[in-house]
Amino acid sequence: MQALSLTVNSDKKIRKAVIPAGGFGTRLFPATKAVKKELFPIIDKDGRAKPVIMAIVEEAISGGIEEVGIVVQPSDRGLFEDFFKAPLAPELYKKLSPQNQEYSQYLQDLGSRITILNQDKPEGYGYAVFCAKEWVKDEPFLLMLGDHVYSSDTGTSCARQILDIYEKANQSVVSLTTLPAESLYKSGCVTGNWQELNSILSVTQLSEKPTIEYALQHLRVEGMAEDQFLCIFGLYVLTPKIFDFLEENINNNTRDEKGEFQLTSCLDKLCKEEGMTGYVVKGKCYDTGLPDPYRQTMIDFRNV
């Protein structure tokens, strides 16, 4: 196996994170008719109830991110601004315990790092990412799913793990986990060549929700069991070149079978043009975007 250079380049520090949160949450209907899925509550290890989006922002900050852009529908902008940026009404503040009064200030401080970005049309995950182009400008950035929360198996947060890999590899990074073949229908999948066995991969192809037949033929990774594949964990570090490929898809009206602009095909182009590193995250990912996984998150995330 060819060794990956592990020299940290301090000039490659990632400052910004993007969290798309403009979807309709159709898989959690009818609850999402009343509450945005990113605002669904979870209970953290300290026993504190917080919306999913807050846990995601905290994951970004734990990795050393300085600014977070949350991409939302214009009609939902006020919901996110009220939560992260509006101070509590004095009559409500007075009713809080001293601990929660202090925590309300923490929430305001967190909000000072957040920019709310508009997604003018609900046209897929790739389109939502593209809506952050002007805010990101020409910097590499951390991309996070708006309905996934994470817990690390080490003293280093999941976000920090892949940011560290970017600083060493100096190319886009996709976080990975191992999933069985029967789970491929709901995940992006990658293949490539190990640089460090079961840890760091030189990615050669990405495929969105492949069939098992396609994966067996094209997405095998050396050393893995026949029914096991490397799938996307939900965190990315991307160079701004990704916006060129997204813009090309939008201009050419290149949509998937649902009529949406997707990200994975553009990731595959980015991989082929600039190279891409995969990293098997030492941690767990919790999906809050489906009823049963959300229920399990409520049970498990409290105890991480």
UniProtKB/TrEMBL annotation:
It catalyses: alpha-D-glucose 1-phosphate + UTP + H(+) = UDP-alpha-D-glucose + diphosphate. It comes from the Bacteria. The keyword Transferase applies. Its EC number is 2.7.7.9. InterPro entries: GalU_uridylyltTrfase_bac/arc, NTP_transferase_dom, Nucleotide-diphossugar_trans. Keywords: Nucleotidyltransferase, Transferase. Gene3D superfamilies: Spore Coat Polysaccharide Biosynthesis Protein SpsA, Chain A. Coiled coil: none annotated. The keyword Phosphoprotein does not apply. GO terms for molecular function: nucleotidyltransferase activity. SUPFAM superfamilies: Nucleotide-diphospho-sugar transferases. Residues 16-297 form the Nucleotidyl transferase domain. Pfam families: NTP_transferase. Belongs to the UDPGP type 2 family. This is UTP--glucose-1-phosphate uridylyltransferase. It comes from Funiculus sociatus GB2-A5.
